[in-house]
Amino acid sequence: MRNAKWGIALSNRFPEKIRVFDTTLRDGEQTPGVSLIPETKLRIAKQLDELGVDVIEAGFASSSEGEMDAIKLITKEGLKAEICSCSRGVKSDIDAILASGADSVHLVIPASDLHLKYKLKKTREEVLKITEGCVQYAKDHGLIVELSAEDSTRADIDFVKNVFTKGISCGADRICPCDTVGILTPERSYEFFSDMIETFPNVTISTHCHNDFGMAVANSIASLRAGASQVHATINGLGERAGNASLEEIVATLKALYNLKISIKTELLYRTSRLVSRLTGINVQPNKAIVGENAFAHESGIHTHGILAHPSTYEPFSPEMVGFTRRIVAGKHSGAHGVKSTIEAMGLHPTEEQLKDMFSRVKNLGDKGKKVMDADLLAIAEAVMGLQKSRPIQLEEVTVVTGDKVTPTASVRLKLNDKEVTGAGTGVGPVDAAINAVKTAISSVEPIHLDDYHVKSITGGTDAMVEVVVRLRKGNRTASAMGVREDIVKASVEAVISGMNVLMADYNNQTRREQVQ
Amino acid sequence: MRNAKWGIALSNRFPEKIRVFDTTLRDGEQTPGVSLIPETKLRIAKQLDELGVDVIEAGFASSSEGEMDAIKLITKEGLKAEICSCSRGVKSDIDAILASGADSVHLVIPASDLHLKYKLKKTREEVLKITEGCVQYAKDHGLIVELSAEDSTRADIDFVKNVFTKGISCGADRICPCDTVGILTPERSYEFFSDMIETFPNVTISTHCHNDFGMAVANSIASLRAGASQVHATINGLGERAGNASLEEIVATLKALYNLKISIKTELLYRTSRLVSRLTGINVQPNKAIVGENAFAHESGIHTHGILAHPSTYEPFSPEMVGFTRRIVAGKHSGAHGVKSTIEAMGLHPTEEQLKDMFSRVKNLGDKGKKVMDADLLAIAEAVMGLQKSRPIQLEEVTVVTGDKVTPTASVRLKLNDKEVTGAGTGVGPVDAAINAVKTAISSVEPIHLDDYHVKSITGGTDAMVEVVVRLRKGNRTASAMGVREDIVKASVEAVISGMNVLMADYNNQTRREQVQ
Q: pTM for this structure?
């Protein structure tokens, strides 16, 4: 057994080339609550193609007109990837695929007694006949055939093999024993796929794992280790229930842990994840591996200290590998090193003594349960360093009128460098109107750009607290700030003005000026 | 090798009793952006205790005053679980733990050369001396000692063993080789822990896995299979970066796949997950295993058909096991069976022909990228069944005034059963005021309760589309409805009125009345 770094075994029977079969647009789109229009599906398909997947399962051609339109749109695009569509064991489903112009059919045949008895209501003999008829029909019409046996992992394994034997004898190009309800474990996957590969040595074997117990990725990797040569996966692990195996986690594991070559442009993984999250409306949790917002974020003192000294102390690989960036966050668990690095980036150079004081104040804020934004760090630094508190903008008054028969309209009165200015604005809603009024009021002196406006999802009643986080930009500087109120308008105005004040304080420039003098 | 159901191996060396060491309040709270105040930590600790964990790691006593207060609060509560606190290899950290009243110390000693060289800046000899000094000090003061070797999986294994040998000789009760940056794989975990257990047969060995490649749960299970007898985990997999191993996934796997007895009340898992998500502010993604909103949701035709015939066709275990419930969702991928079951629950009994028509209209909506709510299903059913469209409430006008110097105030004019009614209300913000005005306007005829109000997180600009989803209740009936607008006030009013109309349509009662006649 040859060992790679960190003792990870390389004795495995990984195939020469691992094919990636992406099913984000089929099994992934079956995520409850997700529906994509054809143009959106095309956009994701193009991104997947650029990412370098071998097969794009684009949808279920027979399931609706929209699906058919989407697959047609994608097949016409001339992508490098094979375009596949899903089918039940019904000839009309295959006819739909032929009409769609797809290259291949993913033919799904139920295999467990549970599925045969309760869902399909057919005998094993009937199922074998259906398999024969469908594979033959698809091959006769020129399709590549990937034959899946649904719920294989809970089925009589001899019957699963009979289905595959029948399918292969009719020309099936690839076979896939599906772990439909995610009951595999890694050691069982290895055993199961070793047996499959021994039985069917001359055909491409796929693995299709679901994530009901959170082990879809580990099970997929174990199947590949046993010699399976194609893996079904989705971006962000989308899919029925707890989803399918996550493409980005599989690819990063194969590359960073097993040191294998894989034809995926890993540096596009983060961007692809964001695109899919945005277009499907399914959030990625912050602590999701590889692509979650926190995957390369560090707050606790011990960790930031390590990261600033040498990133690999607390990162298994560099975030750039997947097109992501590292983030140092200030908060309750911060150490002195993290606070120092953030404050220096603002252009301030506190003494060791001052830094210690700031550090303890950051912790105090955190102890009170508060998130620490750039605006908070600036306020702390000013207080500790005895700098004059620089709040060039102060809100005096904001008023908004909105409704379905009036154009949302807002007025603000601000103190801008102690001079009173007013502004008015309209918008698509009350928040937009209020922010436009603020922008108008200060436009004469400060062109500031709102890079990101984020309202945390509000659950509860209409009187719940609203948390608005903004990131503003002025030239190449950015600042984060937050507003928390029961009123979304007030919270938004507060956050924007607080962020603007950080940018206008501009210690970077002052420092530069002092250095020049 | 004895096999349990589905061929999963039981040959394993699982210990008689698997101890659960929960670190939601320590490693979990180190999630960037999370800070919990002492009262919140206590609330979570009580829930973990009820859940049945063996150890609660309550925080890092020396890290801040708030942490100290939180641990004191928890130790005073007299919970059944052992209360533990984390410490670096520094005596003052142990003093803080002694002051906090915790039962045990989780002493973390860096073990890899990478950590020694770049972070700790100490030699191996110095580290052994520190280990000796700290373990002895903690034991002399009556603490249970769990000794962790940080970054063990990337360290020289002989040195890791030296650290543990030294610690055990000084009285350490438990040892834990940490997979600090999540680089284990299941087969490597099994091998690694088998070696550990062979070397240290007489001490409790813990496994502490991070999720950087998405395999923390599989790695934890593999360590337990090799004979480790305690598992570190967090609710929702919270923790540094991509988080720690998820407690609920580990527990469900041990119980449902390996058929092991475990002293966790699994039926409290969902409730515990929601509590932690709400109090930390870290969302659980819908496709998270075990506790994600979609973990037991079914939309696609093939799946709902199966589920309605026999739930185990598409569920590996029943949602009740973890205190969750099944959900059938209507949408683009729906089959006739799913639509039928939802419409019948509304008290409507369409013919097969009508059902087919409804079904194709649901798909059409889905094809357009729309989520299908109860309000949409009702509209479709009415159209198809030729029922008079029942919209007792119609919005004529809404106007809101808000600001920081005015009390948010709204007026509405509605048609209620073709009679014009008006209402006015104030609130904490413009949305609250508008909804209160609607409630006032219809209060004379309809007491309807807003069970849930959810605004999807808005990212982008202040002019982004806002999606408001509400669930309303009247007696024992509920209805979901959605409003999508650029204006959060209009979207909210639209959603609430649309849901009220579903509840007031009340075909259930009509049907009952007809049946009585």
A: 0.86
